[in-house]
Write a structure and sequence with these properties.
mainly alpha; globular; Growth Hormone, Chain: A
């Protein structure tokens, strides 16, 4: 694919730029995966339905559609390093919006803050993902991205635990009080609960801003894409991004993957609560999903490319996703929850495998292709709310049939996971055939 323009000494110090980029993956992993705690928190303080509460995920991930191509333009203008710095500063501004949002306890203001943070993450990801992909040989790109995934998910685990403790502790007791107090007292309780986000998001904004300044001084070497292979006599060279069908199929696969990854991490707490598992236990469930991903990432670092190819890892991941999807729906109680967490095993190597497979042979189109792949992150904005709609509709139908509230909520939450099956089937197609469409043998 490409090689980095560096001296032999710099080649021996690849640890430094990989560590810096891993730090960035840690940051947006932390920010992304606190959504699992934010969703039930927002549902309570803003008195939302399931479908409405999953707009937390939508607000974050829809920004990848809006900002990906502008991010590609910015990177072409100012380079990778300055783009990463700007992305961190934009994320800091998004965190600050949570302060007036909490004061007003207004859902759309919270969503605005989440969207702005997502815009910063879009710029950060559009710069960092292709950077780490082309930092060395394409055959080992999934290994490098798996290392990034470990940093991302460890941060996500920390974020889910920390914000779960900050935002969800005592929420069961507050819900019980909300059912019996008058409207004035109810408003006071919800306002107090909303104020609990102010301090953590103020700290987050400060850290992000400082890191945004420091990244400008980071020792990141310059990288360039390799040129597209010259056409043979009589052949016409590639002149458009639309001439790479394997890329567009990769965008679709990545869109669906991000949707199922977000479902696995962001719905598991709410799912546990729907199964009548106490919040004090359920608030740790996102940690289970993320730890499953971290362990599988570590396995990928060891296996790829020495023992298995990126395509083979993707095949196994998709097959496991299909199996676990069936297990979630047909299992019961905590067993079903554990299969949601096991999706972390199925999901871990999908992102690292799709990126190098989709960018293979793109040459000068790599930055534009990277922006399209980043836009595919919007799957996290579309698929989880569809899960919420399925849950709400199923619950309403069960209540009409006379099923009690608790049983209806549990059955409906389980039913919603049927949305995973078609997503993994399409990923499976890409693993076997889609990544080769339009490429020379």
């Amino acid at each position: 694919m490409s090689e980095i323009n560096r001296t032999p000494t710099q080649k021996n110090n690849a640890f430094v730029p990989i560590s810096v980029i891993a730090g960035l993956f840690f940051i947006f992993g932390f920010v992304t995966w606190i959504n699992g705690a934010l969703i039930p928190f927002m549902k309570t303080i803003n008195e939302l339905t399931d479908a409405q509460s999953y707009l937390v995920a939508s607000a974050s991930y829809i920004s990848f559609v809006v900002m990906a191509l502008p991010a590609s333009y910015i990177i072409n203008k100012i380079g990778f390093r300055k783009s990463m710095s700007l992305g961190l500063i934009i994320m800091a501004l998004g965190a600050l919006i949570f302060i007036p949002a909490a004061e007003a306890r207004t859902y759309w203001v919270f969503l605005t803050g989440i969207f702005v943070q997502g815009a910063g993450m879009t710029l950060l990801q559009t710069a960092s993902n292709p950077y780490i992909t082309i930092l060395g040989p394409i055959e080992s790109a999934a290994k490098r991205i798996a290392i990034m995934g470990i940093a991302n998910k460890v941060a996500g685990a920390l974020g889910s635990v920390i914000f779960g403790a900050l935002l969800l502790s005592g929420i069961d007791k507050i819900k019980e009080q909300l059912d019996v107090v008058d409207n004035a007292e109810k408003g006071r309780l919800l306002d107090t609960m909303a104020d609990s986000v102010v301090t953590p998001y103020l700290v987050m904004a400060t850290v992000l801003f400082v890191l945004g300044v420091l990244i400008r001084k980071a020792p990141l070497p310059h990288v360039e894409e390799s040129p597209i292979e010259e056409p043979k006599a009589g052949e016409i060279g590639k002149t458009s991004i639309f001439q790479f069908p394997h890329l567009w199929l990769g965008v679709l696969a990545l869109f669906l993957y991000v949707g199922v990854e977000v479902i696995a991490g962001d719905t598991i707490i709410s799912y546990g609560i729907a199964l009548d598992i106490p919040v004090e236990q359920a608030k740790f469930f996102t940690l289970f999903t993320l730890m499953a991903m971290v362990l599988t990432y570590a396995l990928g670092v060891f296996l790829i490319p020495k023992y298995i190819s990126q395509a083979f890892a993707l095949k196994v991941s998709a097959i496991l996703g299909i199996i676990f999807s069936f297990c979630i729906v047909f299992a019961e109680g905590i067993t079903s929850v554990l299969f949601v967490a096991a999706l972390g095993i199925a999901n871990a190597l999908v992102w690292p495998a799709i990126w190098p497979l989709a960018l293979n042979g793109l040459g000068k189109f790599t930055k534009t292709a990277s922006a399209l792949l980043i836009m595919a992150i919007s799957g996290g904005a579309v698929i989880p709310p569809l899960y919420g709609v399925l849950v709400d509709n199923k619950k309403d139908n069960l209540l009409i049939e006379g099923i009690n509230e608790v049983s209806a909520a549990a059955e409906a939450a389980s039913f919603g996971y049927w949305i995973l099956l078609p997503c993994y089937l399409i990923i499976l197609y890409y693993a076997f055939y889609g990544h080769k469409v339009g490429l020379k043998n």
